[in-house]
Each structure stands twice: as structure tokens, then as C-alpha cells.
Structure to design on (701 residues):
């Protein structure tokens, strides 16, 4: 009865949808992180790729098996690696925030774009640690790694008997489980940020963004609160970076963390979806990712058609040029949205006033 | 004793540093002008430089197609005009709608513009690196062959001096230059005294765009190649130069650019070796044989180790900028702090 579900065509389609949701979810996480920084507090982070790279590399180095190409072989559990990814990304945000958050947003934008470049330089040059431009490979993926006997042997408990009994299951079903994990984390972060947004903390952030002088006059420690917001956002981006590394399985400093594909895309996603609105951030992330990967297929197809009509044009060059043209068009969309619909698809909704309570909000 | 390492230092570190400094200084002028007058950090400035370099390449190719070969500086004239046009068009359609809104929105618009130009260049010229000027320019010997300078290096330094002289004359002695400085100091006061701010903004793009166009061509002449990321790689050093000199201070941008350019090149010099050489001579002077032996040994070891690996050259500007933001955000020449 359900045999059609298992036909190769159908399985292929489902895997594609699965991967769309997976990458879309990772981008949605980054959007949520940026939303804390820009949407809530008005902090311009132009170095998303750098924070994601820090998270991804921390995770990769802590969890991979020894390879001899880079330091590592710590073989730590996946959750430890992800936690560490969040912490390192947060520490870097703390350092950057402490230096230039008291200055106007422009300086933070310059400093974050700078730190992203420095991170790239370090990843490229410290070959002993990161294997330089040749990158880190065989990064364990959530669930898939349980299908690896080396991991299964080390588990303190035997899940379903001997590893040989369930290796096959995880090898076959990990895409679904991994996607559900990412989507679950998106949901979790979303719910946490919704609580944060309507909490006194979130309200102060809005106050700082809208009128810094008034927030300061009301006795808020603006600098400290801004740094808090910046660090929270960076922690979420670091987590997304760890998932990104899992999904790619191989990371290197240049192409995997291309600012056009991370920083720029995430910005367009957030602005399109609606900055300040967590639901908008998730929507923008998923939607633009579907458009982005959908156009990939269109570009391939179009390049082949054009290549057939004009045989002296090489299809591979056409594909490259068309991808850059797509980037240009996405930039144009950003400019259009900025000028015409600055609030995005789902505009920011202010939380209702606390029913007459006059409690002291925060120091 | 100076030919031992003195001229190597000048030929391979000091002169390239000065040349790089000239390019950064020209670029930083535009950054500091827009930051001072329009009050936003223009992320697309590096891409304007890149466009001018690519346009120059195109004009050279066009001239070659018509049968005559032109040097880059001649082809740069129409390219500079077009680059100024590009800067004005970008301002009209992408920045001007935000004149009344918060400046951070224009920063975002310029950030988007940066990636749009960066995406459009490979669509037009292809994604691969292009050779700007073919062949290796020989190093010409001066002072009995001790001092070696390439023609392009002379050209870049002289060209920068000319552009900067004209620039400072405009800023100090013409109506529009004075108006620009007035708007930079206080836009409200300037408006009250009857200065047309839109005219000043247009002049800012023309002057900043021209300096960027020249800087872009010089950069391409210096590295002899064009690549999609050349503008982006200039961005951080130029911002660092503008902040180091003080936002809104063209003199500061020039000094800052020179400092950053020199620092980036000089940091790769084996300073430890130079220090040990001095220790070695000193020990010979005071006849301390043990010390001489030690200094000789260490010198041999560190003689060719750069102070900072050249791979980190691009990080120097960032380091200087961060120190400046901590110690003195107003910059060397007391610029504006937002």
C-alpha cells in the first residue's frame, strides 16, 4: 500500500526536502542569533561567518578522531563539542563587545568584519591546529556517528544490544533524526528567545535600541546589557556553526565560511523575515534558503540550456556567473526591502505592557 | 656595514611599505570624508576602488583592440570618470532614500552594496584573476646598485603626492572644500549659514570617488592583477587608517594610511636578526668574546625569521585599529567619535 513511498524517486525527493529543512534550520538558528543582536538591541554584526567558523572549528577539533593532520583526537561526545562551540563563540563576542560596544554601531560593524577576517587568517595560518586551507574532515554528525562502531564501543550503555545490531539503523535513518534535532533546537531557541523578548531583559533591549539616552537615564547599565545581548547572539551563532560543521562534514576556512554565503545571506534572511520578530527570523531563514537552493537547480538547468544553444560558452563558467548574478539579485532584494518594507514580512510586535506592575526591572 | 642589511631593508620592506601606504591613504580619504560628512561607515568603498581597476583594464583592452597600447594611467582617466559616476548613482538610488533615517540603515545599505558590486564584477569580467600588466617590472638600480626601485613604485608615490596636493588645495582654498569641512564639523550650523548640503554630498562622492579610483588603479598596478576580493581586502586597512588618523580628518587619513601600509610591510622584517646584529657589533666593540659567540649563534638562527609571519600581514591593520579604539577612539588628529 505504501510501496510508492519507498520508490527511489520518492526517497530522493524526501531526502531533498530533508536537507532543505536541515540547512534551512541551521540558517534559521543563525537568524535567531542575529535577531538578538540586531533585532532586539540594534547591534550590527558584520562577522557572522567568523563566529560560525569559530563554533564549527571548536566542535570539529574536539569531536573528530585523531587524523595526524591537525591537533585533535579528543573524541569528545557531540554535546560537549557543541557546548564548547557556543562558549568559544561567546568569548570572542565578549572581547569584541568590551572593546567597541560603547562606540556607535558603525564601529562594531567594522570591528566584527575585522574579527571575521582575523579568524579566517588564524584558521588558514595555524596549520598545526587547523590543518590550514586543507581543512578538517570526517566531522562526526549527530546520530550518524552512532552508526560508527568506534563511537558505539565507547558508549557507557549498550543502547540496543551490541553495536552491530543498530549500526545499520543509524546509518540509514540519521538524516531524518539529524534534521529533527536541528529543527528541535530551532524550536527550543525560538521559545527561549520569545521568553527573553517579553521578559524585562528583552524590554530593556528594545529601550536601548530605540532611545539609548532614555534607557541610560532610567538607570540601566547600557554597556553591560548590550554586551550581554551581543554575547547571547554569538552563542546561538556558534551553536549554528557546530551544526553547520556537522552537516558539511568537511570544513576549510575559505569556501565553507564565505561571508557572502553566511554573513550576507543571514542578514537578508533576517531583514526579509522581519527583524525584531523571532518568528520572522525563522521564517526568513527557511524561506530564503528554499529560494536559494531552488534557484541552484534553475541555474544548473538554465546553464545547460544556454550551453546547448551557444556551444562555445562553457556551462561551468555560466553556472559560476549565474550564481554571482543570483547573489547580486539577492542584494537587490535587500535594498528593495530596506527601502520599501523595512519591517519585513512579519513586523516586530511589542509585548503588552506588564499589567500595572511597577517592579524594578533591572539594575 | 649598511649594505649588509640596510639596503635590503629599504628595498624590500621600506619602499613597498611606502607604496602600500600611498594606496591606503588615497582610499582612506574617501572613507573619512563619507564618515565625516555623511556620517556613516561606507562598506562599499573598497568595491568602488575595485570597479575603477576593472574599468581601467577594460579601457586598456579596448584601446588594444583599436590597435594602440596605452599605459594604465591613461586608461585610468575615463575609468575614474565612470567610477565617480558609479559612486554618484549608488548614492542617488541606494543611500539618498535614507538621508533622514538612522545612519545604521545606510551602513546596512552600503554593506549590501558591497556584496552587490562584488557579485556583479565576476558576472561581467569572469570569476578568475586577471593579469593587469604583464611581465615583471625590473628593479632599477640607483646609488651604485644599492637602492633598487621599480618604475611603478615611483609612479605610485609621485601620483599620490600630486593627487594629495590637489586635494589639500581644494579642501583649503575653494568654496566647496571649505563647505565640506564646515558640514563635517557641524551639519546644522552649515545649513544655517546657507550651505547646500546636497551639493556638498555630491562633491564628497566626486572627490572620494576620484581618490578611490586612483587608489584602485595604483593597487592593481602594484600587485599587477585584478581579483574579485581586491576591494574587500582593502577595506579593513582603510578603515583602520581612517580611525587611526581620526574620523573626518583627511590629514589623519593620509598619515594613518602611511602608518598602516608601513606597519604591514615592516612587521615581516626579521627584526630579531637586526637586534642580534647590533648586539654582535657592540660585543666586538667592547671585546666581549663570549658575548660575540653567543650573538653570532643566535643571529645565524633568527637572521631570516620574520617578526610576524607574512600570512598575518592583513591582521596588522586590525590590531592597530583595536588598540586605537581602546586607547584613543578620536584618533591621532582628534577626529570625531560617534
Amino acid at each position: 500500500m505504501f510501496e510508492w513511498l519507498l520508490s527511489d524517486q520518492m526517497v530522493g525527493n524526501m531526502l531533498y526536502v530533508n536537507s532543505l529543512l536541515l540547512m534551512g534550520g541551521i540558517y534559521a538558528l543563525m537568524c535567531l542569533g542575529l535577531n538578538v543582536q540586531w533585532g532586539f538591541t540594534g547591534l550590527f554584526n558584520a562577522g557572522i561567518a567568523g563566529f560560525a567558523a569559530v563554533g564549527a572549528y571548536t566542535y570539529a577539533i574536539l569531536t573528530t578522531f585523531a587524523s595526524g593532520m591537525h591537533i585533535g583526537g579528543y573524541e569528545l561526545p557531540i554535546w560537549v563539542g557543541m557546548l564548547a562551540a557556543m562558549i568559544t563563540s561567546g568569548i570572542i563576542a565578549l572581547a569584541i563587545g568590551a572593546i567597541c560596544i560603547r562606540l556607535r554601531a558603525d564601529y562594531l560593524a567594522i570591528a566584527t568584519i575585522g574579527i571575521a577576517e582575523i579568524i579566517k587568517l588564524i584558521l588558514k595560518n595555524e596549520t598545526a591546529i587547523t590543518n590550514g586551507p586543507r581543512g578538517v574532515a570526517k566531522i562526526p554528525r549527530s546520530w550518524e556517528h552512532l552508526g560508527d562502531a568506534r563511537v558505539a564501543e565507547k558508549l557507557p550503555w549498550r543502547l540496543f544490544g551490541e553495536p552491530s545490531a543498530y549500526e545499520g539503523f543509524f546509518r540509514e535513518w540519521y538524516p531524518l533524526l539529524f534534521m529533527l534535532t536541528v529543527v528541535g533546537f530551532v524550536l527550543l531557541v525560538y521559545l527561549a528567545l520569545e521568553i527573553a523578548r517579553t521578559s524585562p531583559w528583552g524590554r530593556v533591549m528594545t529601550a536601548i535600541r530605540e532611545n539609548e539616552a532614555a534607557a541610560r537615564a532610567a538607570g540601566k547599565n547600557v554597556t553591560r546589557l548590550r554586551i550581554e545581548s551581543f554575547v547571547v547572539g554569538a552563542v546561538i551563532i556558534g551553536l549554528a556553526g557546530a551544526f553547520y560543521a556537522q552537516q558539511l562534514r568537511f570544513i576549510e576556512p575559505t569556501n565553507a565560511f564565505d561571508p557572502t554565503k553566511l554573513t550576507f545571506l543571514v542578514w537578508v534572511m533576517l531583514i526579509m523575515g522581519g527583524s525584531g520578530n523571532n518568528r520572522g527570523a525563522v521564517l526568513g531563514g527557511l524561506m530564503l534558503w528554499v529560494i536559494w537552493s531552488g534557484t541552484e537547480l534553475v541555474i544548473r538547468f538554465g546553464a545547460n540550456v544556454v550551453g546547448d544553444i551557444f556551444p562555445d560558452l562553457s556551462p561551468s563558467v555560466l553556472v559560476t556567473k549565474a550564481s554571482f548574478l543570483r547573489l547580486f539579485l539577492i542584494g537587490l532584494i535587500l535594498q528593495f526591502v530596506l527601502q520599501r518594507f523595512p519591517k519585513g514580512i512579519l513586523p516586530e510586535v511589542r509585548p503588552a505592557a506588564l499589567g500595572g506592575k511597577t517592579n524594578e526591572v533591572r539594575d | 656595514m649598511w649594505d649588509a642589511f640596510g639596503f635590503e631593508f629599504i628595498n624590500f620592506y621600506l619602499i613597498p611599505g611606502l607604496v602600500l601606504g600611498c594606496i591606503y591613504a588615497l582610499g582612506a580619504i574617501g572613507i573619512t570624508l563619507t564618515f565625516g560628512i555623511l556620517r556613516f561607515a561606507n562598506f562599499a568603498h573598497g568595491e568602488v576602488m575595485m570597479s575603477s581597476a576593472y574599468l581601467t583594464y577594460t579601457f586598456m583592452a579596448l584601446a588594444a583592440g583599436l590597435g594602440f597600447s596605452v599605459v594604465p594611467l591613461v586608461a585610468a582617466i575615463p575609468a575614474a570618470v565612470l567610477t565617480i559616476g558609479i559612486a554618484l548613482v549608488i548614492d542617488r538610488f541606494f543611500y539618498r532614500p535614507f538621508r533622514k533615517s538612522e545612519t545604521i540603515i545606510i551602513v546596512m545599505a552600503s554593506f549590501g552594496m558591497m556584496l552587490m558590486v562584488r557579485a556583479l564584477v565576476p558576472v561581467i569580467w569572469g570569476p578568475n584573476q586577471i593579469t593587469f600588466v604583464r611581465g615583471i617590472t625590473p628593479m632599477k638600480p640607483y646609488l651604485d646598485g644599492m637602492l633598487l626601485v621599480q618604475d611603478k613604485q615611483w609612479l605610485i608615490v609621485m601620483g599620490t603626492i600630486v593627487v594629495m596636493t590637489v586635494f589639500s588645495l581644494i579642501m583649503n582654498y575653494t568654496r566647496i572644500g571649505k563647505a565640506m569641512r564646515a558640514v563635517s564639523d557641524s551639519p546644522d550650523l552649515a545649513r544655517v549659514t546657507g550651505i547646500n548640503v546636497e551639493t556638498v554630498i555630491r562633491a564628497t562622492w566626486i572627490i572620494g570617488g576620484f581618490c578611490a579610483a586612483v587608489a584602485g588603479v595604483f593597487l592593481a598596478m602594484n600587485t599587477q592583477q585584478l581579483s574579485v576580493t581586491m576591494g574587500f581586502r582593502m577595506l579593513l586597512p582603510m578603515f583602520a587608517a581612517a580611525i587611526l588618523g581620526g574620523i573626518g580628518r583627511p590629514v589623519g587619513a593620509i598619515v594613518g594610511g602611511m602608518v598602516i601600509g608601513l606597519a604591514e610591510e615592516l612587521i615581516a622584517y626579521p627584526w630579531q636578526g637586526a637586534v642580534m646584529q647590533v648586539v654582535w657589533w657592540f660585543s666586538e666593540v667592547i671585546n666581549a668574546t663570549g658575548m660575540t659567540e653567543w650573538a653570532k649563534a643566535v643571529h645565524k638562527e633568527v637572521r631570516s625569521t620574520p617578526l610576524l609571519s607574512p600570512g598575518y600581514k592583513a591582521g596588522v591593520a586590525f590590531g592597530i585599529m583595536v588598540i586605537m579604539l581602546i586607547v584613543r577612539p578620536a584618533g591621532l588628529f582628534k577626529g570625531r567619535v560617534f
User: Anything to note?
Assistant: The mean pLDDT of chain B is 88. Chain B has two domains: 9-269+309-327, 270-305. Residues 2-37 of chain B form the longest helix (36 residues). Chain B touches chain A at residues 35, 40-41, 43, 94, 97-98, 103-105, 107-109, 111-113, 115-116, 118-120, 122-123, 126-127, 235-236, 239, 243, 309, 311-312, 314-315, 317-318, 321-322, 325-326, 329, 337-338 (CB under 8 Å).
